[in-house]
Amino acid sequence: xxxxxxxxxxxxxxxxxxxxxxxxxxxxxxILAKLASTITEAGxxxxxxxxxxxxxxxxxFCAGASFKELININDAETGRVFFSGFANVINAMRKCPKFIxxxxxxxxxxxxxxVASATDYCMASKFAAIKLSELNIGxxxxxxxxxxxxxxxxxxxxQIAIDSxxxxxxxxxxxxxxxxxxxxxTEELDDAVQAFAENLCNYNPDAMxxxxxxxxxxxxxxxxxxxxxxxxxxxxxxSDFTKEKIKGFK
Length: 250
What we know:
alpha/beta
């Protein structure tokens, strides 16, 4: 696999949405936009009862936003649009009337932690360590923060946001509530995710839809909130501190 993609497969009521980018699944704006629209479309499709969200590759679920795009930001509006990419995906996930099962096979960083946190039920392999690295380059996990805090609590989110150089292992993430289950291998994870999705297909779709509304109650302001957070990051990425940090990655 060398070309980035977002693809969807629908079988027996299960929509499997998979994204991929060869740079450790770090996602550029066009892939994020496609991912958000695919999730929205699946939510409207009467054939779909439940959604599995996964990424291609073996050891990285998502390395966050595309660094290649990040280093080319030269004004606040471009920055706002850039950081809105993950905001749009998270908002598409919370508005989707279908349960979204996260399949996290490997490490996930930054925006990827936000995506995992926005799933309704998240299952992982033991390789699925998490890190919020944004503070390390002079910004912060502003856009994904509400989704991460919703799953890990303020204490857990603050811990990994401040300790931005460290990976926290999958068991830590399970204990904090991000992962429901952690498996020894990707094969065991895939079997468990599939079985869980198939079981959900036996439930009343209307009941699941109403449950999702209840579970996401209190997030109705996220369209505005995450847009405001994207603007903060878009401003900070222009700072001399961040520009100097970015130079080290060129």
